[in-house]
Structure formats: C-alpha cells, structure tokens
Design goal:
Elements: H1 3-23, H2 32-72, H3 75-107, H4 129-134, H5 141-147, H6 150-167, H7 172-194, H8 196-209, H9 213-218, H10 220-246, H11 250-256, H12 258-267, H13 270-284, H14 289-302, H15 305-321, H16 328-344, H17 351-363, H18 374-402, H19 408-412, H20 430-444
Bound molecules: aspartic acid (ASP).
Aspartic acid (ASP) is lined by residues 268-270, 304, 307, 347-352, 381, 384-385, 388.
Length: 445
C-alpha cells in the first residue's frame, strides 16, 4: 500500500473517531477522553509531527534555494522566474476572491440572519505593509531563520547563491556541499513522512473532536458556500489555468498533489507543508529544483487563494448579517486588500482571520463580526490551506514548464517519486565506508 493511501486512511479514521468523540459527548471538558486522549495523546503526537515538519523548513529552503540559484546560474532567468511567479500568484489570488464574492453575492448568504448581537472578536495586529517590504531584507539572517520568517530567508539564500556564482570555481566545494546537504534534507523529509499516517490520524481526530458541530449547523450556509467556492477554484479555475498555461493534464496533477494537500489539511499550515510540497512538485511532478526551491516557499508565504476565498465569502456573509451596504468600490477594495494582505502574512494556522480583520477595517465592517465564523474556522482553515498549497504547485509547474525546467517524463509517470521502503533503507556497511572516507580525508590533510 502506498504511503499516501495509508495517510488518507489515517485521515479517514481520524475523522470518524474525532466526530464520534464529539457527537457522543465523550469529549466534554474535563472528561477522561478530553484530558488524556484528545488533549493528551493526540495533541502530543500531532504537535510533535508538526514540529518535525517545521524543523525541516528552514534548512531545506536554505540549501535547496542555494542549489536552485546555482542551478539556474543566470541572473536574467532568475529574475524571470521571480516576476512570472509573483504575477501568477497575485493573479490567481485576485481571481479566487472575485469568484468567491460572486458566488457569495448570488447566493445571498447571511441575509435575514439575526446573529449580529452574539459576535465577539478582537483582532491581532497585522504587520503594516511598509514593514513587510523592509523586513524582506533581514538585519540578522540567523534571527530570521530562528523565527522561520520566509521572505528574509529566501532573500538571504538567493544572495548566497548569486555570490557563490560570482566567486566562481573557488566556490565549487561549497556548492557541492550545499547539494549534499539538500539531498540529506530531502531524505529527512522521507523519514518524517513515514510517520505521517499515525500523526495525521492524531491531528485530524483532535480537530474533529473539538469541532463546534452546533455552530456548523447554524453556519451551514456559510460553510457550504465557502467549501463550494474552494472546490470551484481548486477543480475548475486552477485546473483551467494549469491546462491553459502549460498544457499539462489536470488529472495527473490532482493525483500527484494529493500528499501535499493531505498534509496541508492536517496541519492547516502552508509553511509547515513546504517540505512535502517541495517534494511533490520536484520528485512527483518533475519541476526542476532550480524553480521549485524558489516558487514553493515564496508561494507558501505570498500566495493564498483559499484564504482569499474565505475572505470574499466572509465579507459578503457578515455584511449581509449586519445589513451593511457594500458597493462596487468596497468590493474592489476587498479584492485589493486581500491580495496585499496575503503578501504580508505567513502561511500559518489561523492567519486568514488576521487578514480578514485588515479587510474589514478598510471597508468599515465591524471587526467583532469575525467572531461569528470563529467556531468553524479551524475546519475551514484546513480546507483552504489545501487549496493554498495546490495553487503554489500549479504556479510552480507553469513557471518551470515555461522555462524549460521541467521533466515531462516524470510528470507522466504515475509512480514517480512515490515514497517506498527503499527510500528509508540504510545500506549495510555504509557506516564503514563513511568512517574510511573520514580517515582518508584526515590522512590526506
Ligand atoms: N492556514 C493558512 C495557510 O497556512 C492561512 C490561513 O488561511 O489562515 O496557508
């Protein structure tokens, strides 16, 4: 059985058990199940797994991007990859929110609902846009790495790569070292992925057990419209864009992106999913690392189609509940704001709500209205994060194909890059070989 299949089964079992705990009331506050299983075992396993994924992100991005820049080896191409992916990321996000608002406006969700008095939400501060630009350049790269800040890390890694190219021949050893380090990190991704079926089970069971099902009933209109819009974007818009710009088969794409989608769904974090997305687009789809090492972490940070869709639907829903009359100008502001907000915020759980409060402040909607959708947001976050990473992969594929940094044979091969037991295999006697290599080096020096 393939690993993805096992993970999907883990996910299914997690949904069933979590919902059972929730519906049967076994997960009540202070109960045994709640204290020791859901907030105990499941919480610990899930958190350990998310930590393990996050642990990989910074070194993986650093080394793969250094290799990527050296692999491209040409500043013009680098600039083209950067501007193409930026333009496509912004375009897909703008299309996503426009479609979402159109669907929400046509269905008229929230009209006539009387929930306004029950809302309660205080927004966390979002970073001002000026700071976002300033902070792209790290004053202390080690600190940025420690914080897991993606844009400064991307900037620093690209600069190292470019400088290595400038140093030329003398940097050869360093480049080879970075390539080996990158390979080692990719192996680590395989090791962590092998634990995924159990961890995904724990993560999903916990989320489902804590789900506000009564709220789900009350917000059924919002949830249906939002999930519908997310599906339209994933299966129609993104696939049309993929087909149009690259000519590649959407069916194959959807098969190969599945593992990244499942990880995104389980962790609700595009950032934590970077290792899996990177693996899926390079090894499963055939995108060259020189493109993917940039487009994937860049996309995880600035591209959030699913989040933009949530913002579009939530704006219409809450405006209707508060009977606020938004005109075309306000809707255009919503589109612009959410595209801009997506640049400044990282792909971590729940960040969409912070972005939403920026949008609300701009068009004058009551921020506490966000409290109305809070109870279902974790579930919506899981689904929209899967859409976010799919968007990152679509753009990576299109850009790579247009730059000739793409292997069609890998894309067409259904089994390419599937994690097997061989990926986790350690050769007999390898430690002996490594020890000999070290002794040889020492003798030579
Ligand atoms: N969790 C989302 C992500 O990581 C962001 C959000 O919508 O809150 O992409």
């Amino acid at each position: 059985m393939s690993l993805t299949m096992k993970v999907v089964i883990g996910m299914g079992l997690g949904i069933v058990l979590g919902l059972f705990f929730n519906l049967s009331g076994l997960n009540a506050d202070g109960s045994f199940v709640n204290t020791y299983i859901v907030d105990g075992v499941f919480h610990v396993i899930g958190k350990m797994f998310v930590n393990a994924l996050k642990m990989l992100v910074v070194p993986l991005v650093l080394f793969s991007l250094i290799c990527g820049v050296c692999g491209i080896g040409n500043l013009n191409t680098l600039g083209r990859v950067g501007s193409k992916s930026f333009a496509l990321y912004m375009l897909t996000t703008a299309i996503a929110i426009t479609i979402a608002m159109t669907i929400a406006l046509t269905t008229g969700i929230g009209e006539g609902m009387n929930l306004a008095g029950t809302a309660n939400f205080t927004a966390k501060e979002a970073p001002p846009l000026t700071d976002v630009f300033i902070n792209i350049i790290p004053s202390n790269p080690v600190k940025s790495m420690a914080n897991g800040d993606m844009l400064p890390l991307i900037f620093f890694s690209i600069l190292i790569g470019i400088s290595m190219l400038m140093v030329g021949k003398k940097a050869k050893g360093f480049i080879e070292g970075a390539e080996i380090a990158n390979e080692i990190m990719m192996k680590m991704v395989n090791i962590i992925m092998a634990a995924a079926p159990y961890a995904v089970f724990a993560l999903i069971a916990k989320s489902m057990a804590n789900l506000g099902l009564e709220l789900l009933g009350q917000l059924v209109g919002y949830v249906l419209v939002l999930v519908g819009a997310l599906f339209v974007h994933l299966f129609v818009t993104l696939m049309l864009i993929l087909k149009m710009f690259s000519g590649l088969s959407p069916r194959l794409f959807l098969k190969k992106i599945r593992s990244a989608q499942v990880f995104a769904f389980s962790t609700a974090s595009s950032n934590a999913t970077i290792p899996v997305t990177l693996r899926a687009v390079t090894e499963r789809m055939g995108v060259n690392n020189s493109v993917a090492s940039f487009t994937v972490p860049f996309g995880a940070t600035i591209n959030m189609d699913g989040t933009a869709i949530m913002q579009g639907v939530a704006t219409v829903f809450i405006a209707n509940i508060y009977s606020a009359d938004l005109g075309t100008a306000e809707y255009i502001t919503v589109i612009l704001m959410s595209v801009l907000a997506s640049i400044g915020t990282a792909g971590v759980p729940g960040v969409g709500l912070i972005m939403l409060s920026m949008v609300f402040a701009q068009v004058g909607l009551p921020i506490e209205g966000i409290g109305l959708i809070l109870g279902v947001d974790r579930l919506m976050d899981m689904i929209r994060t899967a859409v976010n990473v799919s968007g990152d992969a679509v753009v990576s594929t299109i850009v790579a194909k247009s730059e000739g940094k793409f292997d069609v044979d890998v894309y067409s091969d259904l089994d390419a890059g599937i994690v097997t037991n061989d990926d986790l295999h350690v050769d007999q006697g390898v430690e002996q070989e490594l020890a000999e290599a070290i002794i040889n080096t020492q003798n030579r020096s």
